[in-house]
Amino acid sequence: MKKHLFCIPLAASLLVLGTGPALAQALAAAAADSHSSHPPAAAASTAPQAELSEGEITRWDPRTLRLTLKHGEIKNLEMPPMTMVFRVADASVVGDLKPGDKVRFRAEQISGAYHVQRIEKAP
Fold first, then answer.
1. Helices marked H in the chain — which ranges?
2. How far apart are CA 89 and CA 67, in angstroms?
3. pLDDT digits (tens, 9 = 90+) for 90-107
4. Which region, left, alpha or beta, applies to residue 20 given φ > 0 means left and ψ of -120 to 50 means alpha?
5. Which residues, at least 6 apart from 121, have a Cβ–Cβ distance to it below 8 Å?
6. 8 A C-beta contact, residue 123 and residue 101
7. For residues 114 and 37, what is the distance between their CA atoms, to the nearest angstrom?
8. Could you count the other beta carbons within 10 Å of the beta carbon of residue 28?
9. What pLDDT score does 50 carry?
C-alpha cells in the first residue's frame, strides 16, 4: 500500500505544477497497474514473430545479398502481394534455396529497407 501512497501524491503534485490532468492521471494509472497482483500478459509480439509469409524465389544474388521474391500478402508489414527485392544479413540465411523454390519467410523493415530474417522451403 505504501507504493500507492507515493504515486498518488506525485500525480497530484504534477497536476498542481501545471503539467496537466492527463499526465497526472496516466502516471497514477501506470503506478497502479505496475503494482497489481495480476501476472503479466504474454507478449503480443510473440504470435506475429512466428507468422510466415509465402512466396517464390525469382532471383538470388549472394554477392550483393539481394533476394527477389514474388510473395503473397505480408501481414506483419501490411504489404499486399507483389514481387520485390529484399536484403539478407548474409548468404547463410538463404542457404541452398534457389530461384523457382516455393518458400515461407519472415521479413522485417529495418532502417527503411526490407530484410528477410528467416526463410525456409515451403512444404
1. 2-16, 21-34, 46-50
2. 11
3. 999 999 999 999 999 999
4. left
5. 97, 101, 102, 103, 104
6. no
7. 41
8. 19
9. 64
